Amino acid sequence: MTAVGEKLLATIGGISVEILQGGVGKPALLLHGFQTIGQKAPFLSELAKHCSYLAPSLPGFGASERPENFDTIYDLVRHTLDLIDAVPGDSVTLIGFSFGGWLAAEAAVTRPAKLARLILVDPVGIRISDRETRDVLDIFNVHPDVVRTKTFFDPDRFAPDFNALSDDELITYARNRDALCLYTWNPLLYNPQLKGWLRRISSPTLVVWGAADRVVVPDYGRAYARLIPNARFTLIENAGHQPEIEQPVNFVAQVVEFMRGD
Amino acid sequence: MRAFYGCEVTYPFVAPQVLDAADSVRASLPNKYCDPKIAADLYHETLDEYLVADDVGLDVMATEHHAGINSLIGSNPTFVGIIARQTRKARILSLGTLISLRSDPVRIAEEYAMIDVISRGRLEIGLVKSGGSEMASNNGNPMQNEDRLWEGIDLISKALTQRDGPFSWEGKYFTHRHVNIWPGPYQQPMPRLWAATGDPRSAAECGRRGIVNTLVLRGPEGTRKAWDAYKRARREAGLPPATRDMFGYAAMVYVGETDEEGMRIGSKILWFLNTSLKTAPQMSKFLPGTVPPEAAPQIYRGKPRDGETGDAKKASSELPQGDQEVTKSASQNAAALMSITAEQAIAQGILFAGNPDTVFRQIIDFQRKAGPFGNLNIIGRSGFLTHREAVKGIKLFAREVLPRLEAARAEVQEVA
């Protein structure tokens, strides 16, 4: 088993998609958040000990193509269903992080036959509060320093250091941000209709939340979990919006324990 | 040469310590810092300046910016509608409504048709691409800004020219099942279109469409580059060659009786650059879609990375020409403009100031470098420049400079 996953290109529904692949065991499909998942992310090598993961870059993100007129959440949800279909075998655990958690929840609402388990990690995608209270930090419209401190429990250790990233990494970072903006600018990072449909999710669901997340706070996560019939909510201490980055061992332990349940 | 006098109705009366503490003087500065009573005086003074311009034979223009000290004209058609009734002879350039940021272009067509009719056919319609802090103020998705703009223009143009409506529009960004505006415009088939845009790609599109292309504070090199793209696009499309009335240039202009007076008062307009450009990074260089991802190494890094500066430069030089221009305007240009002095501004061709003879020569020199243009857009009053000073400058320009520019037409070669 290799510690670092391999990158491959696949064609999914006619779209050329970059996919990170690694590990052995039950398949898990990972949907990234605001940024694509780094090949060397420690949680991936941890996860590889327990399952075989596929981590695609969504269209427009990373090195994945974005076809003309593919520019809405509607497109991404259908693409997610294509990705689920493309996973080998007849059962998959879907793990969605942040923005990818939104897409995972949208896909799960349609009850794909293959979907065994659903794990949502600090997902966005619904609105809980009143119309004058933002649930999700306006990541495009507040100062980058604020986004940085609200995203991470320990920003000095885990936030990307732009001075240290390579040209390619910075270009990917900017491309990801452009793609995210294209899909989610308005309404910002939620679908007003999704909340009412979460009741249709039939797979066992784990909602994981970084206790120090201030992009979307844990109470939002608790409300999210309550709207899904068979969901359990769990907090990860000393982690912000990306517990998989700040607490990889604890995070993977929770995931593995949940996946072992069937 | 036509000269359009404009005033952005800036609001310089916010305490410097408030402006220093704010990360942006646009979009996010609370409006408690704007006294509506002072704003009323500013609107009235500006409208009076337009009446003076009308009297002395100038044309007039009004811009639109949102939620900041750089301009109180948040609704261009409201202001232009007043000008339409109060002036008598001047052409009226709306430069313009932020089309891509409004949800219904048909409503914009209605507003413009009304204004054109009220003015009995004196309206010119300027299209502004917008960007930066305006996206936040108007909820516009910066990733689709340009495509929305062009579809909006198409829909407005059809709404203004259709005489046998209603018609249906099912575009990518706008749908309207029943478009039929009353009245249609006074000018037939519709008022002339302008676009204030600086990158060669947009300029080329203006050329293909025959839209007047005005360059705002670009200096002669950037201006020539855009106009070359405009002319080339027309040649390639087999269209008649561009004429000078298809080009405009917007600069800060002040004419005094002496060079000393022209410089002293003209320098005050620089407030617009020195003070009112300050914009938070999330609304400027980090705003998605502002620069292509390939420019990220220069944008994101606070300092050059050892051994990789060469790559970053290479990535930049490989950008398509148009995008490179956008990159420059979005970040480096703004930073450079904020610290500019009057002498530098004159040297760069973005400020024309001095006595009438000096200003005349500056404008002729600019045309020799950039190419001849038929429309001068005057950024005439800004910051602490007073109403009285503005009126004096308008009169001097109209009496001492404009006739000479018209007489000197032959001194600058017609475009090829």
Could you explain how this protein is built, in words?
The complex is a heterodimer of chains A (262) and B (416). Chain A is an alpha/beta fold and 262 residues long. Chain A has one domain: Alpha/Beta hydrolase fold, catalytic domain (Rossmann fold, 3-Layer(aba) Sandwich). Chain A is built from nine helices and eight strands. Chain A has helices at residues 42-48, 73-86, 99-109, 144-151, 155-158, 167-184, 218-227, 243-246, 248-259, and strands at residues 6-12, 15-22, 26-31, 51-56, 92-97, 115-121, 205-210, 231-236. Chain A has an eight-stranded mixed beta sheet, sandwiched between helices. In chain A, helix 1 (42-48) packs parallel to helix 9 and helix 2 (73-86) packs across helix 3 (99-109). The longest helix of chain A is centred in the last third of the chain and has 18 residues, at 167-184. The model of chain A has no long low-confidence stretch (mean pLDDT 96). Chain B is α/β, with parallel strands linked by helices and 416 residues long. Chain B has a single domain (2-270, 349-411), classed as Luciferase-like domain (TIM Barrel). Chain B is 45% helix and 15% strand. Chain B contains 16 helices and eleven strands. Chain B has helices spanning 16-21, 36-55, 76-86, 105-118, 133-138, 145-161, 200-209, 219-236, 259-266, 271-274, 296-300, 309-317, 321-338, 342-347, 356-370, 387-407; strands at residues 2-7, 59-63, 92-97, 123-128, 167-170, 175-179, 193-196, 212-216, 247-255, 351-354, 375-381. An eight-stranded parallel beta barrel of chain B has the order 1-2-3-4-7-8-9-11, surrounded by seven helices. A two-stranded antiparallel ribbon of chain B has the order 5-6. In chain B, helix 7 packs across helix 8, helix 8 crosses helix 15 and helix 15 (356-370) crosses helix 16 (387-407). Chain B is globular, with a radius of gyration of 21 Å. The interface between A and B is medium-sized, with 26 and 32 residues.
